[in-house]
Amino acid sequence: MYAQSFRVVSLWRYLQAALVAIGLWWLAPALAADAGAFLKPEQAFKYSLRIDGQTVVASWDIEPGYYLYRKRLSFSSPDNSIELGKQQWPAGEQHEDEFFGRQEVYRGHVAFALPFRATGDRSGGIPIEIKLQGCADKGLCFPPLTWRSTAGVSDAALPASANGNGNGNGNGVVESTSEEIADRESTVVVSEQGRLAELIRNGSLSAVLATFFGLGALLSLTPCVLPMIPILAGIIVGAKGASSPRRGLALAMTYVQGMALTYAIAGAISVMAIGQAPQAFFQNPWIVSAFAVLFVLLALAMFGFFTLQLPSSLQTRLTLASNRQRGGTYVGTFIMGGLSALVVTACVAPAVVAALAVIGQSGEVLRGAAALYASGLGMGLPLLVVGGSAGSLLPKAGAWMEAVKSVFGILFLALALYTVQGLLPAPIKMIAWSVLAIGSGLWGLSLRSRDQHFAPAPIRALALMSLLYGAMLLVGVGAGSSDPLLPLARFAGEPDARAERSGEPMFRSVKNEADLDREIAAAAAAGRSVMLDIYADWCVSCKEMERYTFSNPAVVGALRPFVLLKADVTSNDSEDSRLLKRFSVYGAPATIFFDRDGRELESFRIAGFVDAENFTRHVGAVHGKRLP
């Protein structure tokens, strides 16, 4: 028994090490990007235009360490009287991009011949519109840019960098788009979800699947997936007949397939139909409460309260449904996996946001759904470990099997409380966790071994710890604490997040687009930037942002120049939906920045939880300076 447990623990440690390695591989470009300053795009990709007969020659001088994508470079003329002919593309070099696969890129000096035919007067020059995207070897990629210049009738035109402010004036100087101007006011970066969305659109399918599987594996180490473990373990515990590692793994794979396919199919359909992730709908308080009741019923079934002989037809149906799902049938397990993906894992991460954005904005349904499916499979890795090991670790028969079922009954009660805690007032939430902890402790102390002696010492120790924790919660709620994870924080001189924000609120609330536009306009008139936090009570990551990020003194200091707005989308009504759709946001949390002119800095968007240290650095980048 202990040898089997040791093998499983060792396997889990190896899996964690592998996932950390994947994370370091993924974060390497970001770490490299922070190692030194990067040039602005007009500095990295200097060019000039000149007319040679009936040809416009575009000459580029690309700085060392930077490159342009061949497939992302295009030329056109906004003047309808000028028609550009077939462009002559010089040969580039092959570059193995870690996200987009093998790509043709341009480095150093390169020139393009653009034949044209003008039907009108061209004494004012030939206006040229250039669309481009490039990257730095150290890992930073610029957003897609649009530059406008005019090739003068003389031999030379001014280079793109000739004008320090980058604004076009029709004399051969780049005319920047609003997106580029916004980016120049700060360090030029591309948001993680933006880069992932570009990978889905243009990367090889194998790179898409591998990257999103790895990101899903990293997401599996967050609270997004942990609530699924007692559900799956409860299914395996309730399996009819002897449970073997092979059967447990098969049930786990079925559960993960239900989860991953639901992510892919429901995500695609929901975004195309209503412009929201399906989890947003399933976090309606009534639906969340209904599923909490379901988890309570499953807990009661684990405790043995329900039998198939109950006279009530309603309870018979509920018992049959829960029995199928805890009894190990593959169809029931698949369904429970799908429901868990919608209800329990209301997570927002750059990978999920990127896939939903590709589906909703560009219509790449299959590629976006494939990315969601791969991330769902990655999120299921810990569940496969649980499934493969549970059959060998759990007792097969006897009184202890009933005790094990009771343990999972307690876990189902905890899961029910976890599901609805965002809807409960803080004191009620603290008391509920206290009752559960004290009840679990008393149950643990009541256990007896086969010879009617006390339960083994480890079980008694856990029971006493549970009783102590329950008592701490009661003391904490009496002192005004609101965080179950830090019940005695008030006694330690550490005010909880709510206390830290007492007095004048740190954020101003906005309910709809009109409120937001009014606040942004007022901030612009005062010459101040804006940060918008999209929040929901049912969102665990939102509460983590409140508790651990926004309350951090360094973050508070970094955000002082900003007008801070909060949009609470808990109710998920029509106004909330319109606000989310405006920014193509598919869930909470999301953090959106606006410059002093009221324009969104889209490249600086954040989806999901970010810790205080990285958030402070991110805000520093928005300010246009690097922080130590």
Give a structural overview:
It is a multi-pass membrane protein. The chain crosses the membrane at residues 212-237, 249-274, 286-308, 329-359, 371-394, 406-424, 430-447, 459-480. Residues 161-180 are annotated as: Disordered. The protein is α+β, with helices and mostly antiparallel strands. The chain folds into four domains: 41-186, Thiol:disulfide interchange protein DsbD, N-terminal domain (Immunoglobulin-like); 197-423, no CATH class; 426-486; 501-622, Glutaredoxin (3-Layer(aba) Sandwich). Helices cover 51% and strands 14% of the residues. The chain has 23 helices and 17 strands. The longest helix is centred in the N-terminal third of the chain and has 33 residues, at 2-34. It is elongated.
